[in-house]
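I have been asked to look over a protein record a colleague put together. Alongside the sequence sits a line of tokens, each denoting a local backbone shape. Please read both lines and tell me whether the tokens look consistent with the sequence. Take the sequence as given and treat only the tokens as open to question. I have pasted the whole thing underneath without changing anything:
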Amino acid sequence: MMSVAIGVVVGLALGLTGAGGSVFAVPLLMFALGLPLSEAAPIALLAVAAAAAFGTLVAWDVTHIRYRAALLMAATGLIAAPLGVIAAAHLATALLTAMFAAVLVTVALRLLAQSLRRPEETTVVRATVSGEGSPSTGPICGLHASSGRLLWNGPCAATLSGIGAVTGFLSGLLGVGGGFVIVPSLRASTPLSMHSAVATSLMAIALTSASTAMLTLAMGRPLPWAIAAPFVGGSLVGMLCGRRLAGRVAGPMLQQGFAVLMLFAAAALLIKSLGKT
């Protein structure tokens, strides 16, 4: 079944890259199954929520998930998500498609930059309890020396709230998980390792995507369950396979390959949007 196969691809991409793989969901649903963006977005959100939740559960015992940060980002994301849903309802489909193409290009360039500058961080799911990985300097949020927990203050809470709000708005607008926003933002504003940032991102994505999917359904977006159910099931299988394979195959070449595929998808979406103008 095509929807199962596409779900496996989405889950595999998310499991291998840790963030950014979920943006494959919407274009694959649009091109392979011929769904409009309004139907593809909630299906993608459900699949991303399920796969990210599974990834969070798997990562809980092997890495440091900053659950307070994830909960804060998810809370502000839920507040901002309705704005994205409302904006999507008032924008032309061609414009939304072009915006999604821009998101794909952004994610692709980030993956390419990471694979070239920090190739050791392209395997993002092979974490240990010690939170191994080369941390970045966090000028806003600090970490407690002994516990490794975030040191909360006003600027730190405001920054994480802003990250969550942007993620929620994009989830409501385009049906994307938002890991491509959360992970680099956490790396820039905190000293978290790449592994910890990805694990925290997965938890926030799971909560934000699930709540946004429910919100879009409550606000009247259609959801063909005959496609959604097998797609979600396939994404779980793909996430499991991705996590098992990540330590063996994830690396610079893998992320560069995903980036190239995203650029092709972006070009196709842009052509599609121009054809509707």
Notes: The beta strands are 142-143, 150-151.
